[in-house]
Amino acid sequence: MKKKILFNGEELISKSEAIRMLGFSQLNSVDYYIRRGKLDEYKIIGLNKKLLSKRQVLVLRTLPQIADAG
Fold first, then answer.
1. Alpha helices in the chain (DSSP H)
2. How far apart are CA 34 and CA 32, in angstroms?
3. Domain boundaries, the chain
4. Cα-trace Rg, the chain
5. CA-CA distance, 51 to 69, in Å (whole number)?
6. pLDDT tens per residue across span 12-60
């Protein structure tokens, strides 16, 4: 049974959960959106993990995926 991790009312999920929710096959795809500022990354001391906001992942999932022209 998974437990919810909450921080300031925000539910946090692991990168591997975000990959599954977004339908990606690689971690690099999630890291790309973190570098572009579309996803915030939270480092929880004691867990040694970097977590993402579930709300932001769900919003990103609903946006159309458009390739960069640049």
1. 15-22, 27-35, 54-62
2. 5
3. 11-62
4. 12
5. 29
6. 999 989 999 888 888 888 899 999 999 999 988 887 888 999 999 999 8
